[in-house]
């Protein structure tokens, strides 16, 4: 007899969004807290999502000529301190290695919080001529930032990421690289994660420590809070000068190269949860789902059902889908709830009558729609339904984003709109830090970005009344 | 006019094997020393070799049901110390984090030297019932061991590796897993890296700290020294008991699971260099070569040559080969030497006359053999030549291994054989540590392994004269 195993309930997102988020992280078996305070464990299902993200991004990076490398994880303090802004930005969050074996080190070593310094050090020893430029490097690794409060995926003392680091002969080439990688992130978020983004530039206050310009893809979660998706930085020749990275130019003179870096992290898994999840659990975009299709045999004790299910699984696997079959003796109700919790995009149900009639049922995770499917059409129908799910997810998220951008013409209005609706509040801005700080203080919002797609909402900064320089988005961010 | 750029010479291996090795590491652009003492940088070409190794191994692990996870990199000292043998084995080599940001930590944290403790900690919190067993995990990461002397790939304070960790309901299942993963490594070495191995069991002296049994695949380098290729460990329930990992068994009672771990590292790149390299540089097995085929246009200024080369590259890429074309204005001599240095398995030469005659020339890295190839046969001929190269490499390495295993019946004979020939010296052995230590002291050899394929060479231990328990291989190891 089928065992009646209960799928544990999760908190409704309308009741407590933060708890709902944490529940999904745990119940979908993505992540586990470690014994080390502030550290997390990526469990197989969570890590498999990350692997799919990695594989696709890595392919995109390589398409545009980037190569992977591995730099040491420990950075001598003196090396880290060569660029003042960077170290000031990261020093409070650095974990320090002070002993190797039983000996105290002469100089303490930082666990990398980011690796600009190591790449610069490498280039300062290896770069010779403009013929070797550009150098387009990337690495996949973990970094440590000693955060005070942590949340799975969103803020963790150790997190996993890629960090791209490139140097170029000219400022223009480095700027073009910065924008190309921003666009790469925008493509990845929209076309792979099904998360629409607002690409834009960060204010000086919010930019990366030491960068000349930081660009971001900003996302909106289901609770209408903002999440910074990924960032791309232009450094000019600031680090080159600080780390004495030079090359012999076309004019036969020593020159400083121009530099970029760009990064994205396991935080993207948090973005996926909060963009697509619902009260039944995780909803995964088919392009990154570890299991795209789960086959559930109905009345599997009846003759031929398990064999029929196995045949469907084999065909779907053969066609290149990531597919599994659940032949356990748990009840059908439990299984459906379990794979909904895990966000599997499409479920295939096949019972004895279905198989007799030469059909099965496909069920979409997004809207529960049941699609009868003739067995001979299985592969084509599965491909079609996965595409529909991917598109539905993007459309829904896009609607959430677009319906929650509000225009304000005064600080008071901005504050009120945020309090009433949440979301992004767009205003003009004079560019002064004072106004940015005032918005934070009075309305609780940080600047999210100055979108690349600018609109003219007026002539003056609504905070100080001085002439406006740019249109800007504000929000409450993760 | 073609620039005459000189390929830097490397030391002959017959003159100074160690220098030859280091020269290849640097000149083939595999690795670079970092500013941090004892740490290395994996450059794009070296990392690309590692990526190919990773992709293939990862696929093999997944085929047998293993899943990847990510455990925290830092381990609390108290957690590390729960299993006495492990911590005694690794404590002298641990790097310690003592400060997070500006605060001194209450308890210092070890940069993982290996992660048995973290996996056990996870399981102690998460494992519940036998139904969840086995748990078959693996992770790709870097570890730190604070070695005193270091060499690229062979011994480095940070190195990159995979560590598999599994728990099982029964001892038999865990033992079977240990042997399965040993076999997996043997397959990978022989069929992918083209390195023949001697699979066997380590002595108690040489086994992994805390393991009940350690198995190894031992390789022989061109200088007839031994290199431990990869290891697979069986722990019994020792760690389960130390870390209180339990599950409810079929008998409804609490039980301790049985555990394994197995690992392989970037050291394998060192093994590839020293097994296959020659005085012209690196020789890479086609299965892991970042570039399998280099296309070199001859007299490329002549009309049609570059277009012809581009067409060949496109066809080879289309057929799934990793291929590049060198269209630089360096001389043909430089290019040939450069791609020999980098160990590219097959070179395709195409000049104006070749193309007119509808042919090109394939050149094997292994023996320099030139194979004329009709353009219409390009893909098939390339596949064939890559297979030949892979096989030639294995055969040559196998010959080196087999010709350098010597049988000894006395300590004196063993010592003399090693001094004269190097290689593996096989003897019988009583199993006592005293004899093992004596062999080290008198003949400078450590025990390599007790091969799975045992032979009976006699009845007594040649060192002490007591009854022999096993046949064993001795050697001088990296």
TrEMBL record, chains A, B:
<dbReference type="GO" id="GO:0017101">
    <property type="term" value="C:aminoacyl-tRNA synthetase multienzyme complex"/>
</dbReference>
<dbReference type="InterPro" id="IPR045864">
    <property type="entry name" value="aa-tRNA-synth_II/BPL/LPL"/>
</dbReference>
<keyword id="KW-0547">Nucleotide-binding</keyword>
<dbReference type="InterPro" id="IPR033721">
    <property type="entry name" value="ProRS_core_arch_euk"/>
</dbReference>
<keyword id="KW-0067">ATP-binding</keyword>
<dbReference type="InterPro" id="IPR002314">
    <property type="entry name" value="aa-tRNA-synt_IIb"/>
</dbReference>
<dbReference type="GO" id="GO:0016740">
    <property type="term" value="F:transferase activity"/>
</dbReference>
<dbReference type="Pfam" id="PF00587">
    <property type="entry name" value="tRNA-synt_2b"/>
</dbReference>
<dbReference type="GO" id="GO:0006433">
    <property type="term" value="P:prolyl-tRNA aminoacylation"/>
</dbReference>
<protein>
    <recommendedName>
        <fullName>Proline--tRNA ligase</fullName>
        <ecNumber>6.1.1.15</ecNumber>
    </recommendedName>
</protein>
<dbReference type="Pfam" id="PF09180">
    <property type="entry name" value="ProRS-C_1"/>
</dbReference>
<dbReference type="InterPro" id="IPR004499">
    <property type="entry name" value="Pro-tRNA-ligase_IIa_arc-type"/>
</dbReference>
<comment type="subunit">
    <text>Homodimer.</text>
</comment>
<comment type="similarity">
    <text>Belongs to the class-II aminoacyl-tRNA synthetase family. ProS type 3 subfamily.</text>
</comment>
<dbReference type="InterPro" id="IPR002316">
    <property type="entry name" value="Pro-tRNA-ligase_IIa"/>
</dbReference>
<comment type="function">
    <text>Catalyzes the attachment of proline to tRNA(Pro) in a two-step reaction: proline is first activated by ATP to form Pro-AMP and then transferred to the acceptor end of tRNA(Pro).</text>
</comment>
<dbReference type="InterPro" id="IPR016061">
    <property type="entry name" value="Pro-tRNA_ligase_II_C"/>
</dbReference>
<keyword id="KW-0963">Cytoplasm</keyword>
<dbReference type="Pfam" id="PF03129">
    <property type="entry name" value="HGTP_anticodon"/>
</dbReference>
<dbReference type="GO" id="GO:0005524">
    <property type="term" value="F:ATP binding"/>
</dbReference>
<keyword id="KW-0436">Ligase</keyword>
<dbReference type="InterPro" id="IPR036621">
    <property type="entry name" value="Anticodon-bd_dom_sf"/>
</dbReference>
<dbReference type="InterPro" id="IPR004154">
    <property type="entry name" value="Anticodon-bd"/>
</dbReference>
<dbReference type="InterPro" id="IPR006195">
    <property type="entry name" value="aa-tRNA-synth_II"/>
</dbReference>
<dbReference type="GO" id="GO:0004827">
    <property type="term" value="F:proline-tRNA ligase activity"/>
</dbReference>
<dbReference type="InterPro" id="IPR017449">
    <property type="entry name" value="Pro-tRNA_synth_II"/>
</dbReference>
<keyword id="KW-0648">Protein biosynthesis</keyword>
<dbReference type="GO" id="GO:0005737">
    <property type="term" value="C:cytoplasm"/>
</dbReference>
<feature type="domain" description="Aminoacyl-transfer RNA synthetases class-II family profile">
    <location>
        <begin position="42"/>
        <end position="285"/>
    </location>
</feature>
<keyword id="KW-0030">Aminoacyl-tRNA synthetase</keyword>
<dbReference type="GO" id="GO:0140096">
    <property type="term" value="F:catalytic activity, acting on a protein"/>
</dbReference>
